[in-house]
Structures are given as structure tokens and as C-alpha cells.
Amino acid sequence: MALLDLLIPPACSGCGTYGEALCRRCRSAFRPAGAPLDRFVAPDPAVVVGDELQVAVAAFRYDGVLRRALSRLKYGGASRLAKPLAEAAAPLLADFAEHHRSAALVPVPVHPERLRQRGYNQAALLARHLAGDWAGEVADVLVRARPTSQQHRLNRAERLRNLRDAFALRTGARAPPAAILVDDILTTSATLEACAGVLRAAGSVRVVGIAIAREV
Ligand SMILES: [Zn+2]
Asked: CA-CA distances (angstroms) from residue 3 to 6, 16, 99, 106, 159?
């Protein structure tokens, strides 16, 4: 936990009220990503690593209070937001997790340089809290070999080029037989596809993905 988190009482990242990192009222304002079928994202047909990712599902729409909270988790050092965000998303993802309950949760990794700056990988924090909720297991087995932080400014073709070879299996790590990739935001499924490609090549038989929010 960041030092600031210990010194300053948490203010809600949605409304600013002191007391909780994310208050109940703001949490209830999160909008589901859609009807159950709309929440499923088919593998991106333009992804070069193949179709290793079976399916990915997101809990919420990436907008409003949730967008602010995820942004503060990712860029604002607010690591304490991981728990309430995971708690809010867990019920919407529970059926999916139950269907894949033998799978280990694999966080999408951040580049070591970014990890040093930020102090944590937000996807790993989310995975840990989700695993706690579901009595699942976290397998933090992927690493990011190259920074890919400018993704959101790229078009699809550039994004895919940028992602090629960006991920690798951690030295000495074993890919779990079944994996649920965990990320904070799902834009295209390109990042999850790239991670799934690495896991499949390393022996994972089944790879699916979840995210807190879907950018639509
Ligand atoms: Zn609030």
C-alpha cells in the first residue's frame, strides 16, 4: 500500500466523500457492460497471434464514476481502489468464474519500468481480490517484455504490431492448464489475445479472459 494511503483518510474517488475509497452510492452507479450476451467479446479477428483466447467478458461499461476510479487505480496510485472495484465486479463475473472454476487467474502484466513507477500491477491486485472472492488461485506467470503503454492512441493495426512479442512467460514459471486472464479494461481483445497466445504456446489448454470494464 502506498504511503499516502496510510496517511490520508480515503476519499471516495467518485464523489469525494471521506470514509471509503469507493462509496456504496457510487458503486451502485456502475453500469453493467450490457445484457449477458453483449458482455461477451469474440476474439478479435485481426489479431495476429491467432484465436487462442476463447472468450472474454467484462463486468461494467467503462464510463462515469467507474472510469474515474479505474483511472485513479491505474494512474493515480490509488491501489486501495482494487478491492472495492473487484468486489463490485465479482457478482457480475461469478457465473463465468464458476464455469471456469478450475482455471487459475492470470493477471495481464505491466512492464517492469511501469511497475517500478506505479508500485503495483493493478491487474494483479484485481486478480488477487477476485481470487479471494471466488476461492480461486492466482498464477502471476506472465511478464511484459516491452512497454505497450501507448496502446489507446493506436489504431488496430498499430496496436497489434505493438503487441506482438510484448508478453512472455516468466522465467521458471509454468502455464496453468486452464487460465482466466485478468485485466482492468477491455478495449479490443488484442491484449488478452496476445497473452493467451503466450499461455497456449506454453501449454495452457484453455484460456479465457475477464475485465472490470469494457470500453465500447
Ligand atoms: Zn462516492
From this structure: 5, 20, 39, 27, 35
Reported as a single tens digit per residue, the pLDDT across 171-210 is 999 999 999 999 999 987 889 989 999 999 999 999 999 9
Residue 64 CA to ligand 1 center (angstroms) comes to 12
Whether 94 is covered by a domain: the verdict is: yes
Question: Does residue 18 belong to any structural domain of this protein?
Answer: no
* Ligand 1 centroid from CA 23, angstroms: 4
Q: How many domains does the chain have?
A: 1
Return the CATH number at 80: 3.40.50
How many angstroms is it from 21 CA to the middle of ligand 1? 8
CA of 118 to the centre of ligand 1 (A): 24
